[in-house]
Specification:
The radius of gyration is 24 Å and the shape is globular. The chain has a single domain (about 45-435), classed as Rossmann fold (3-Layer(aba) Sandwich). The protein has helices at about 10-30, 155-165, 185-205, 230-240, 245-255, 300, 320-330, 365-370, 380-400, 405; strands at about 55-65, 80-90, 100-105, 120-125, 125-130, 140-145, 170-175, 220-230, 280-285, 310-315, 335-340, 430-435. By secondary structure, the chain is α/β, with parallel strands linked by helices.
Length: about 450
């Protein structure tokens, strides 16, 4: 004889359960996912920091620069180069408000001659023009450089996250290299590193305690990190000490009718190494472009001596992996360096997720592939990037001990990585190589 156990819910109990479920559903729907928010399997250090974030836009001018787009060889014409930068910083904004900033962006590439420009907007967890939060000694400075093409808003998941952890983060709109104003490539080749240096010096000046700027007293000028993606990676590596090859200077002269303006950034230039900024303590290069095209040689890579984190996809078909990014990592023998590799990823290991507008039918697929990775959830990549940049930059700009997060066993897929949820640390590899002459325990 079978015994059936039946515990029918009372009517009021069923109603209470329904109400609880409905409330839970409403709560989940109300929690809008914004770029940079943590997924359920986000690693530990991807969580936002203790600070609310302020953001402001600045327009600055780099005076008396080579006007390479109008150069015809011989004596280069000069011009005043305009730049727009976005600054994120710890703020005095209250913590009990929702996201209040809207970023205005476009898809497309210089709509007059290439793909049409499609405006869109997206929200961020920051407060426009909020009062800065004062601190003794200032906050470390991080300068971010986008790819070609891109914009200062390409990596807001990262810029907001780092600012919430006690950094002043500045992202550059590189003139002639954004979605809106993309122009001939020689401008990006010449100006990328020069823009980064200029922005560092300008923001440090504004952050000086004697300045009258809103950033006065906010900048720890002795602890600076530089972060670049694709052509931004090309730029930050040069600023960090990896001088360009003579092959690049020859190519640049050929494409500009004889200009030698880029020779000032070449490793063979005796003055170049004197320009390396000792205040820069860390470099992050996402998918840096150029190695497969001869931009660096062994001599140039040997000049990179600052701690560097490389991040790449092993199927990168823009910058290349084995003969591209990995070759840079292996050739930078004088730097303490890491290489985080996303297996089966291509080039887009740095941007925000694709905007909803990129899903519209009829748009060129490259509007989607400016952001998306074919084999990865971009939101997961974003969380992992937040985690590792927090560990790496915290080590070198704040003196934190993050060894447990950065020292991943060689057989890394055999166990969960430190700081990752169980079963979530798959599809990646993290290599570490010490600078030449420094012993590293295996």
């Amino acid at each position: 004889m079978k015994t059936q156990l039946n515990f029918p819910l009372r009517k009021n109990t069923r109603m209470a359960a329904f109400v609880l479920l409905l409330c839970a559903t409403i709560t989940v729907q109300a929690q809008e996912f914004l770029y940079g928010d943590a997924l359920p399997d986000a690693p530990e250090l991807s969580n936002r920091g203790e600070h609310t974030v302020g953001v402001r836009t600045l327009n600055i001018t780099h005076k008396n620069q080579v006007d390479i787009l109008n150069s015809k060889g011989g004596t280069d014409p000069m011009y005043d180069r305009p730049l727009t930068i976005e600054v994120w910083y710890p703020s005095e904004a209250p913590t009990d408000k929702g996201a209040t900033v809207t970023y205005e962006e476009v898809m497309g590439t210089r709509g007059d001659t290439l793909r049409p420009l499609v405006p869109f907007s997206f929200k961020g967890r920051a407060y426009r023009d909020a009062s800065p939060k004062a601190t003794t000694g200032g906050y470390p400075l991080i300068v971010v450089s986008h790819g070609y093409v891109g914009s200062r808003y390409l990596m807001t998941y990262l810029t907001e996250n780092l600012a919430s952890k006690g950094y002043v983060v500045v992202s550059i709109d590189h003139t002639d290299s954004t979605f809106k104003d993309a122009n001939a490539f020689q401008s990006t080749l010449l100006n990328r590193a020069k823009d980064i240096k200029f922005v560092i010096n300008t923001v440090v000046e504004k952050g000086n305690s004697a300045s009258k700027d809103q950033l006065s007293g906010m900048i720890d000028a002795e602890n600076i990190g530089i972060v670049g993606y694709s052509m931004g990676g090309y730029g930050v590596l040069n600023v960090g000490g990896a001088g360009y090859s003579d092959g690049l200077t020859v190519f640049f002269g050929q494409m500009t009718g004889g200009s030698s303006a880029i020779s000032a950034l070449a490793a063979s230039n005796a003055e170049y190494q004197k320009q390396i900024d000792p205040r820069i303590k860390a470099v992050v290069a996402f998918a840096p472009w150029g190695m497969e095209r001869g931009v660096w040689d062994a001599n140039g890579l040997a000049g990179l001596k600052k701690p560097t984190l490389f991040i790449a996809g092993d199927q990168d078909d823009i910058s290349g992996y084995e003969k591209g990014i990995k070759a840079i990592y292996e050739g930078a023998v004088n730097a303490d360096r890491y290489l985080l590799t996303y297996k089966n990823a291509r080039h887009n290991v740095a941007p925000n997720p694709p905007p909803a507008e990129a899903l519209q039918p009829g748009l060129h697929i490259d509007e989607y592939y400016r952001y998306a990775e074919p084999s990865w959830d971009q939101r997961k990549i974003n969380n992992i990037n937040q985690h590792f940049l927090t560990a790496f930059l915290g080590t070198h700009l704040k003196g934190e001990n993050n060894d447990a997060y950065l020292n991943i066993p060689k057989e890394s897929n055999a166990q969960d990585w430190h700081g990752f949820k169980p079963r979530s640390s798959t599809g990646m590899e993290l290599r570490h190589a010490k600078a030449a002459g420094v012993n590293m325990k295996q």
